[in-house]
Structures are given as C-alpha cells and as structure tokens.
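User: Hello, can you help with two protein structures?

Assistant: Certainly.
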Amino acid sequence: MKKNVLLGGFMALSLYVFAAMPVYAQSKFFSVMPDLPVADGFVERTDSILMFDKPEGRLLDFSAEGHTLLACQRGLPFYTQTLPYLGWRMDKTGFVREGERLEIRLEQVNAALCVLHLSVRPE
C-alpha cells in the first residue's frame, strides 16, 4: 500500500512539473537543419530552401519570416545567445562549427516584416 501512495505522489508531481513548463520550451527547428532552432516569432520559409551536397561539404540557403516588430528585434540576438550552446563559435563574419560556416543576415522588409537569411558553407 505504501508503494502505491509513493508512486501516485510521484506521478502527480511529475504531471504538475511537466504541465507547468513554459510553452516556449517546445522549440521549432529548421527542416533543412534539424539541430538549428527557428527563433521565436519566426516561421520557416520552406519554399526558399536551396541545398547541395558536395564532397567538400554541404551548401545550404534557407530563411524564416518574422511578422512582428518584436520578433524582428529579437531575431539576431536569439542566435548570438543560443548558437554557442549548440557548439557554434562566433567569429567576425558568422559562426563556425565542425568545418562549416553559418552566416545569418536580417532583412527588414517593412516595420512589421523581416526575413532572416541563413547560409551554411564549408569553412
């Protein structure tokens, strides 16, 4: 009987903890690069993906749209803060990891629309 009470308490506590987790912890990732998160407020543009695999490495061009001023303001800082935790090292022109270079550019289309352009090339 004591085991059932402990097990029930543990299950109730686990359910409470998982239910209380913030929604933003469930990140979206780019389809062409599944270990790279899409910044909050952005949506991947799957119609703009360009991908080549070469013996020297892969070439990727892809993008995401932000539809609010806040998303546009937070896009680049998100990657500057997040990518080092994913193994990317920042240098003068972008990020480097395992022989690849990732460059990110923000295009402000209008006050509430911006596009993040991302490209991966061999280093």
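That covers the first. Now for the second protein you mentioned:
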Amino acid sequence: MAMRWYSSTPDVVVYKGGNPITPGWSGPPVQPYTAGDLTETAQILYRRLDPATGLPVADSDTAADWAQFRGDPVLIRKVRYPGWDLESHPIP
C-alpha cells in the first residue's frame, strides 16, 4: 500500500499471490509478464502509460492499470528491467 501524493487515501496494488479482496483493489492480482526470454527476475512493476501523453493511465484499482497486464496485446504486455529507458519510446 502506498499513499497517493494528492490524497491521504492509500493506493493499493495486489501482486501475484496477494489477497484480491483487499480494500481498494478490484479483480485479480497483477502478474509479472513472462514470455520467451522475458523472465520475472528483476522485472520492475510499473503503471501503463497513456500513449497520447506518456503519463500513467488513470487509476482504476485493477490489474489493467499495470504494463504487465495481459488484456491488451498492443498497448500493454510490457516489461521493464533495471536500466531500460521506456519513456523515450512509449508507443510500440
């Protein structure tokens, strides 16, 4: 749980085997994205970016907020590892 910079209400993310009925969360937990050579080791969990602005998408308190979400094969299903610069190329 983390505090939102604009509010005293905590923000919640449920990851892997975390409890999906945690207050402030809706739906299944965020899972690391693994495929081919993409492994979970050292993977950085990060918010999905809006391709129009490059800023994080609005918070919906679901796994769809996160780049690792598997629901959209074009704008998400992404990984980040230490040292990768994704902000300079946010659109696939």
